[in-house]
Amino acid sequence: MCGIVGYIGNKKASPILINGLTRLEYRGYDSAGIATIEKNGIVVLKNKGRVSELEKILDGESINGTIGIAHTRWATHGKPSTENSHPHIDNKKNFAVVHNGIIENYHELKDFLLKNGYTFYSQTDTEIIPNLIDYYYSKDVLNDDKKVLRAIASACAELKGSFALEILSTYLPDKMIVVRKDSPLVIGRTNSENYISSDIPAILSYTKDFYLLNDYEYGILSKGSAEFFDQNLKPIKKDFVNIDWNASAAEKEGFDDFMLKEIYEQPKSIRETIGSRLSSDGSCNIEDLNLNKEYLQSLNKIYIVACGTAMHAGLAGKTMIEKICNIPTEVDIASEFRYRDPIIDEKTLVIFISQSGETADTIAALKLSKSKGAKTLAISNVIGSSITREADYTVYTHAGPEIAVASTKAYTSQVILMAILAIYFANTLQINSDLVKNLTKDILNLPLQIEDALKNVDAIRNFAKRVYNEKDIFFLGRGIDYNVALEGSLKLKEISYIHSEAYAAGELKHGPIALIENDVTVIAIMTDPILLEKTISNVQEVITRGAKTLVITNQNLGDHDFDNMITLPNTNSLISPVLSVIPLQLFAYYISKQKGLDVDKPRNLAKSVTVE
Ligand code: F6R
Fold this sequence. Notes:
- This protein is 35% helix and 22% strand.
- By secondary structure, the protein is α/β, with parallel strands linked by helices.
- It has three domains: 3-100 and 162-249, Glutamine Phosphoribosylpyrophosphate, subunit 1, domain 1, CATH 3.60.20; 252-432, Glucose-6-phosphate isomerase like protein, domain 1 (Rossmann fold); 455-594, Glucose-6-phosphate isomerase like protein, domain 1 (Rossmann fold), CATH 3.40.50.
- It has an eight-stranded antiparallel sheet, with helices on one face.
- The longest helix is centred in the C-terminal third of the chain and has 21 residues, at 434-454.
- The mean pLDDT is 93.
- Bound molecules: fructose -6-phosphate (F6R).
């Protein structure tokens, strides 16, 4: 999705902007641009294509301004082209704007502006914004120092949809104005500068102190200061938060790709997720969460709502909560949940899982749940992200910045956090079972077991080399292993572009087995001892029809005729996804490498899906 960067300080802005854009490249984009305030007014440079190409264009220009805004665009309205790239500027060239989000009523606003004499050079929704600001600016008869802010606020009041905006104006040549609604934007500060970005890792090497804006809050940024205003333009006091992420965590540190680095970081990220929340005596303490026994007993249902990989973590969470706490739990895809009028009330707890905390559908589902009276709990990896500011409670995964588009360490941290949450619920409900005690021990053992699981890398790489040219690859599993099959299949398709499906193994005979023919690849996950025999029979059925198989297990399977087998350390089947997903992550990674693809930035995908 679109990425935003900004700088205001004493240094030349353009190298800082390019550096920030490069760090946001992982979000996915098709064009890039910057605007700075120079002696003669606002200068805009933009092009279709990579940030490196923009950098070459910049080399030939004398751009020395110390205030600038920049953008990587992921086309929504209008094809990828130089005209459609941001920044966009108004007809009189007094306002330059970069925008992340979608303006839903832009047709209406464009018609209005056309009737008032404005012209347009692009097909974007964004181009209306600087012109609408100009419209309100020219209508305002007062000439005080808030005139630009008033014009921006009047324009924003007209916008329907989502937006994070950085605005430069020739009327305020030593300031920048920022505002957001349902789209991410953070402001990093030092004593003499402000850095603006769509996400924290892009500017983490400059500062760890961040201001976080709520919807419709305006920031007027200068070199050494930042003033904030609410929707009615009343001044508000805002404290900055210190983000304790290590800047080097957002670098590759010798790995070829962020995805590989993040796969190998999992022993550490799981340790961080567990933190001091669990003790070997079975006690469990989750900071800032104070749900009491009466409330948990009153629940008629828990919903877990998320998208993509985060939803797969939710599926594991459902099994844990139902098995350990006996509370009916449903999992839903946020984009479905928000439009299907779900039956929820004050006796429903809705848990939202989102690595980025900025996923538009998940945020909308959260707002809907609140409006129906449910309590909401966000599980996120990004401190201060939108979802955490909307939810009644937030629990952080603490997995550290995840840069690769394909989620790996965030998924395993989400699964473990769901297990910790289930234990917390059980303890609060005074359910004193051996399951809880044993599970606690198994969770604490996981980091070392992940290190062992990673040792299968050579076997996985060799298997990937054999099958990377396949057209279709199928994944099978039952119960919690089916959830992992879904995740393995998603990982494969997103970074290898191989068609892949995951099936509940018991469903094979109800249709999918028709797809199995000679030499097709089937990967089966079997960690649940209770379901082992059943899944083995299903795998035999595909072998009989000529499939080549890779079995991933933590059980002793005795004699078998699978082509390949990866044996993982044994653990409680409830948390086995954390181990069994590791060979699947490595498999997707090495297939993508073998095909020579860009692992970290797969086509058409974005890290943070901030529009629906
Ligand atoms: C897949 C992947 C996506 C995300 C999904 C939700 O590897 O990363 O499926 O899981 O877009 O994103 P978050 O967790 O940021 O809400």
